[in-house]
From TrEMBL:
Pfam families: Abhydrolase_6 (PF12697). Gene3D superfamilies: 1.10.10.800, alpha/beta hydrolase (3.40.50.1820). Residues 36-280 form the AB hydrolase-1 domain. This is AB hydrolase-1 domain-containing protein. It comes from Fodinicola feengrottensis. PANTHER family: SUPERFAMILY HYDROLASE, PUTATIVE (AFU_ORTHOLOGUE AFUA_2G16580)-RELATED. InterPro entries: AB_hydrolase_1 (IPR000073), AB_hydrolase_fold (IPR029058), Polyketide_trans_af380 (IPR051411).
Length: 297
């Protein structure tokens, strides 16, 4: 398999990307799939796992670091800004759709966890994505996300911290950071036990910076990841399970979309779908079938 560095530009920000292909000859056209992972992550984590598997199935696959993360440009760094990520997805899809080694108008998008809600919003905003697959997708609004952070009081606490950090950034240019993951630390982006982010053999890879800009809270907690669904008619696949996050929201979105929708419900917890063979293989099999049907030449 060929894995090559690439660059996608969104405005004046360079997005570090990778291309995964089996054929070396760029005259061989293939359908394209863009893959992105969870919030606060980089392309070397769960996105790489899925990209390799899909490339082996006959797709040209692209991964990239969102602005402010990993090897990409842009500031503030380590900031989870949904609108910025949606714009990056739209720019990536527009760029990929211009390439001569992929089939015209055949760009699929596979999003794992939180990037699924951003991809759905990008599609609603006109991103040229012909088929969508969500794997353990995280779709939230303030009401449904609050229980993860101790209810309304926990949300208010974190939004307040986010406002303070934002004011500091606007006044001084300093980005106040907290851990992206630290078990038991209520200032961390993720404070529940999550082995994926603690294990160097899983998600704690060298390319990942375990930091979150604290100003992210104001944007993350107030984002509406559900309302875009009514504007989407793109053929969509949802691989999920009752032990994954927010399953009722996934069902709700599936009923709201105006295009063809398929649900594949499975066993396994949220982070199992990031890298565990049973869950990843099931998701890749389902995505391959979905993309080969919807991205036909």
């Amino acid at each position: 398999m060929n894995v090559d560095p690439y660059l996608i530009v969104n405005g004046d920000v360079s997005l570090s990307a990778r291309i995964y292909r089996e054929p070396e000859n760029l005259l061989v056209r293939q359908p394209a799939v863009i893959v992105t992972g969870s919030w606060l992550t980089v392309k070397e984590q769960m996105a790489d796992r899925y990209a390799r598997a899909l490339a082996a199935r006959g797709f040209t696959v692209f991964t990239f670091d969102f602005a402010g993360f990993g090897e990409s440009g842009g500031g503030p760094r380590q900031a989870e800004l949904p609108a910025r990520k949606i714009a990056d997805i739209k720019a990536a899809a527009e760029h990929v759709s211009t390439l001569s080694f992929v089939h015209p108008r055949q760009v699929g998008y596979l999003a794992i966890c939180a990037s699924a809600q951003y991809a759905l919003a990008a599609i609603a905003a006109g991103a040229p994505i012909s088929a969508f697959a969500s794997v353990a997708g995280w779709f939230h609004d303030m009401e449904s996300v609050a229980p993860f952070y101790g209810g309304a009081a926990g949300v208010d606490l974190r939004v307040g911290r986010g406002r303070e950090a934002l004011q500091d950034y606007l006044s001084t240019g300093s980005v106040r950071t907290v851990p992206a993951y630290e078990d038991g630390n209520d200032r961390a982006g993720m404070s529940l036990p999550l082995d994926y982010y603690a294990d160097a053999d899983r998600g704690a890879v060298p390319a990942w910076t375990n930091q979150m800009a604290e100003l992210s809270w104001h944007y993350w907690l107030t984002f509406d990841g559900l309302s875009a669904a009514s504007a989407v008619s793109t053929p969509s696949l949802f691989v999920h399970g009752d032990d994954c996050v927010l399953p009722d929201n996934v069902r709700r979105i599936g009923k709201t979309l105006s295009g063809p929708t398929e649900m594949v419900w499975s066993d396994g917890g949220q982070t199992d779908f990031y890298d565990q063979p049973a869950q990843v293989d099931l998701a890749v099999d389902a995505a391959t079938t979905h993309f080969k049907r919807t991205l036909s030449a």
